[in-house]
Design the sequence.
């Protein structure tokens, strides 16, 4: 104990006393009970734990919670705004881009960061962008479709819809 | 009139009811279960693949702050043995305790357990446990395990032979004597690691004499049954919940040690306990799949007509028999090896062997991908030998569509099939005719381009209970459903199936909606809780859920519908034969304006003061459905690859598949199952392999060394389908969960070999990695020196 961290998660500020060895994903899941972020491996291969840290997709199993002191974090629970789903969420459902749903939060978060940096990606760029997020159910086919579909909607609503990733300080 | 005569929702691309909670982070997976006072279990696992356990010193671990209990195998014998549900003839079964007591038989075999207030404390204490091992000689290779003098995994059995399983039909010796052409090939289906994205997890609490156990499982009812029997609890006092389950693919089709241990510890320690697998731990302690080495010989005429097939296979079952392990290389493999072909003579001998490796059981397809790979590889070898188009060799030997029901040479009866149209459509999608031009263009770029075909038949709808009994499966193959219509008209479907990504909440609602004349939006499907289910469910595996569990839902809905019709006729003062149930209304044919709402009928059923004479109040039905036969989906997959001439790297540039799973309930879900299955099958063909060294150490021990395909490793897929109904069940459905995995591995591998065939290369073992291909190209004298 003895380490105090303060961070903003999904718009709420939290201050907690934590062990220096605590991982960011453990802080989110076990200390803050935000269990939508998952742990799928222990070598940072799978990407199930991906969250936005200061606007960038980050594997929360590979970051100590103390490193997130002062950071702004967005998890899957923070993607919807005022109970309106983010375009990526709607697109994942519409395109059947999830089956078991375990990898889905991490993939959506990666996609949000990616689409806010590349508004009109090619399929090859989409595949490259999500290469660090493994899915064993979908074969990625419908995930690529969903990200393409979300990008089209996000282009149309750009300027109207608040940006999830860009609304925090980079 | 039956409910399926004019399906409204069956066949529609209905959006999944599961998705809203999963895309918002609201779904609860087992590791998300956090209970007051929870303690954490960690297991100490043997670093040796084979070692006698001389002594375990737990004194230091017990002193570690936060430790609740430190236990060894002898403390935990009360949990009983792990179950095996299948017994094949002359099987040498292994004793399998959750914690090893005498010796460790594979690297990862659990030897001690620690429970502590936190995961960290449990892990620190586990590191303080000193185990005095006497390392023993190790055997990893299944064929070597059957040689005289091999180290024996289970001494009391006297050898490592688990079973010899022969299946014969026709005169194979004569077929080979008469053959104009013979081809033979050693074919390896390498060992794979299932890699469901959610690692296994188990949590339990014991309150007021009742054990509640959450587990990431495909078979909650089997877990309930074995936990109750082994821990000495009434089955009514064990509630097993499979909450959100993050993929299974067969790896969660088990009753695992951790389920018995967590249940036992929660019961005896008086506080909730949770165990969550770490991925590297799971690579050792969760079952593996495949691992067959087959010697295959095919006898044929010069025109491509098959005369006979002879196969000798050794299957590596690992260190212990797991729940379904004896049935995977036998029942689910040998019988389906003839595939879509008329084979007049067949002689297969399968042997299973124990080795000092992680146990092997069902992995997506479970025996059938191994079968499809060996028959489809040898078909290409035959085509090559007689210089015939691989598509035409297949077509020539297909069972013709008028031959169904067809009794195979291996002794099973295919329900229905029409194989040529699926082949033709796949060939058209793949622009097969234009391929040689693309091969030439690739050659001009310095690359090798190939195309590979795979036509498959698989067994689904497991299974008729009597067939199960005849085959040695120690449980029925039925499935259960209960439909409860509440007084307000709210409909709940309780199913014995246990989905983990397959979307049963949606598909079952579509099936019930058509029978009840309501919208799927008005139907809630509940699963995975043994205290809510009809009583017993068999679970979700082997592409069985729709053809068995979906039919149970259909039949239960038909029963409810019949009562709705009876009540409706009574209230409308009409004959039941004239009553229509649709669009949430019940009315007399031709008089829709004088309708009763569905809710009026259900309310009447519970008010019970104006029902037909003698009718029981209430509106619900329970069905246990036992299928009369298996179902046999089929299809053709075609992969086109381009291999970099300098690096040997393979890119799948085009993938086309035409599958036939009978009637489709939700085409969107069918396509999703195919996409994922195809990708897993491509994984086996090109990327994945569990590799052991000679000491039994798993070299591919993490996701860094084991290549699960990423989005950049696979292409977009072009899918088409034909619909050949089965008469096995009233919906004509067959099953689609594993078809992609079965069809794709041979298609991708055949494409790579085809690409390299101009170099004289006839076969390379999977996975077809760039390194292997680069070496093969160099060995063939091509490529830069």
Sequence:
């Amino acid at each position: 104990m003895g380490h105090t961290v303060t961070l903003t998660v999904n718009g709420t500020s939290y201050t907690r006393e934590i062990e220096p060895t605590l991982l960011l994903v453990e802080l989110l899941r076990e200390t803050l009970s935000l269990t939508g972020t998952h742990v799928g491996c222990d070598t940072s291969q799978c990407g199930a734990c991906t969250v936005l840290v200061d606007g960038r997709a980050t594997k929360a199993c590979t970051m100590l919670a103390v490193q997130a002191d002062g950071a702004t974090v967005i998890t899957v629970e923070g993607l919807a705004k005022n109970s309106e789903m983010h375009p990526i969420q709607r697109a994942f459902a519409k395109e059947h881009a999830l089956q078991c749903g375990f990898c889905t939060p991490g993939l959506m978060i990666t996609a949000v960061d990616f689409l806010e940096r590349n508004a009109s990606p090619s399929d090859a760029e989409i595949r490259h962008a999500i290469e660090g997020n493994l899915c064993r159910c979908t074969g990625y086919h419908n995930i690529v479709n969903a990200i393409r579909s979300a990008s089209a909607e996000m282009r149309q609503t750009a300027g109207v819809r608040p940006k999830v990733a860009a609304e925090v300080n980079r | 009139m039956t409910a399926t005569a004019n399906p409204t929702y069956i066949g529609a691309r209905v959006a999944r009811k599961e998705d809203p909670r999963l895309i918002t982070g609201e779904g609860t997976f087992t590791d998300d279960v956090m209970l007051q006072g929870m303690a954490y279990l960690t297991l100490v696992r043997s670093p040796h693949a084979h070692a006698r356990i001389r002594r375990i010193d737990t004194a230091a671990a017990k002193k570690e702050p936060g430790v609740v209990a430190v236990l060894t195998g002898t403390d935990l014998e009360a949990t009983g043995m792990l179950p095996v549900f299948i017994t094949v003839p002359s099987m040498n079964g292994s004793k399998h305790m959750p914690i090893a007591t005498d010796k460790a038989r594979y690297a990862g075999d659990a030897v001690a357990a620690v429970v502590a207030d936190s995961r960290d404390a449990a892990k620190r204490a586990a590191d303080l446990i000193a185990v005095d091992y006497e390392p023993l000689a190790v055997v990893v290779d299944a064929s070597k395990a059957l040689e005289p003098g091999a180290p024996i995994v289970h001494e009391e059995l006297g050898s490592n032979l688990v079973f010899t399983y022969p299946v014969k039909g026709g005169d194979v010796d004569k077929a080979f004597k008469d053959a104009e052409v013979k081809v033979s090939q050693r074919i390896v289906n390498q060992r794979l690691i299932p890699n469901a994205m959610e690692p296994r997890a188990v949590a339990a609490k014991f309150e007021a004499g009742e054990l509640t156990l959450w587990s990431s499982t495909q078979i909650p009812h089997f877990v309930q049954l074995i936990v109750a029997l082994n821990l000495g609890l009434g089955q009514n006092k064990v509630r097993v919940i499979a909450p959100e389950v993050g993929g299974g693919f067969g790896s969660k089709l088990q009753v695992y040690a951790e389920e018995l241990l967590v249940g036992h510890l929660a019961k005896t320690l008086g506080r909730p306990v949770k165990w969550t697998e770490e991925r590297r731990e799971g690579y050792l302690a969760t079952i593996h799949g495949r691992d067959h080495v087959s010697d295959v010989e095919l006898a044929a005429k010069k025109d491509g007509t098959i005369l006979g097939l002879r196969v000798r296979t050794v299957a590596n079952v690992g260190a212990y028999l797991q729940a379904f392990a004896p049935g995977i290389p036998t029942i689910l493999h040998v019988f389906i090896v003839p595939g879509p072909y008329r084979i007049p003579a067949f002689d297969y001998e399968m042997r299973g062997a124990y080795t000092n490796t992680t146990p092997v059981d069902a992995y997506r397809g479970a025996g059938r991908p191994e079968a499809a790979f060996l028959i489809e590889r040898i078909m290409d070898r035959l085509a090559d030998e007689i210089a015939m188009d691989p598509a035409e060799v297949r077509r020539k030997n297909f069972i013709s569509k008028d031959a169904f029901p067809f009794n195979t040479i291996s002794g099973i009866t295919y329900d229905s099939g029409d194989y040529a149209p699926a082949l033709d459509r796949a060939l058209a999608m793949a622009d097969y005719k234009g391929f040689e031009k693309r091969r030439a263009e690739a050659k001009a770029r310095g690359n090798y381009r190939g195309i590979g075909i795979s036509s498959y038949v698989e067994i689904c709808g497991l299974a008729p209970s009597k067939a199960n009994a005849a085959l040695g499966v120690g449980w029925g193959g039925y499935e259960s459903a209960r439909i409860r219509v509440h007084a307000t008209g709210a409909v709940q479907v309780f199913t014995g199936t246990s989905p983990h990504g397959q979307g049963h909440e949606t598909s079952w609602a579509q099936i019930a909606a058509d029978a009840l004349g309501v919208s799927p939006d008005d139907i809630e499907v509940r699963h995975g809780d043994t205290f809510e289910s009809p009583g017993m469910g068999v679970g979700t595996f082997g592409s069985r859920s729709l053809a068995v569990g979906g039919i149970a839902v259909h039949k239960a809905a038909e029963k409810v519908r019949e009562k709705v019709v009876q009540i409706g006729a009574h209230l409308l003062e009409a004959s039941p034969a004239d009553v229509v149930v649709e669009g949430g209304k019940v009315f007399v044919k031709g008089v829709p304006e004088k309708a009763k709402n569905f809710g009026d009928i259900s309310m009447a059923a519970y008010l019970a003061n104006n029902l037909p004479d003698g009718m029981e109040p209430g509106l619900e039905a329970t069905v246990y459905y036992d299928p009369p036969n298996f179902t046999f989906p089929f299809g053709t997959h075609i992969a086109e690859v381009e291999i970099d001439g300098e690096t040997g790297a393979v890119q799948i540039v085009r993938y086309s598949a035409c599958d036939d799973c009978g009637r489709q309930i939700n085409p969107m879900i069918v396509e999703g199952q195919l996409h994922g299955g195809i990708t897993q099958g491509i994984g086996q063909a090109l990327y994945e392999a569990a590799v052991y060294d000679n000491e039994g150490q798993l070299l591919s021990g993490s996701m860094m060394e084991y290549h699960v395909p990423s989005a950049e490793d696979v292409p977009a897929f072009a899918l088409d389908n034909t619909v050949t109904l089965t008469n096995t069940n009233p919906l004509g459905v067959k099953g689609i969960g594993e078809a992609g995995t079965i069809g794709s591995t041979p298609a991708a591998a055949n494409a790579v070999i085809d690409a390299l065939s101009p170099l004289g290369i006839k076969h390379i073992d999977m996975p077809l990695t760039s390194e292997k291909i680069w070496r093969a190209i160099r060995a063939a004298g091509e490529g830069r020196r």
Remarks:
- The mean pLDDT of chain B is 97.
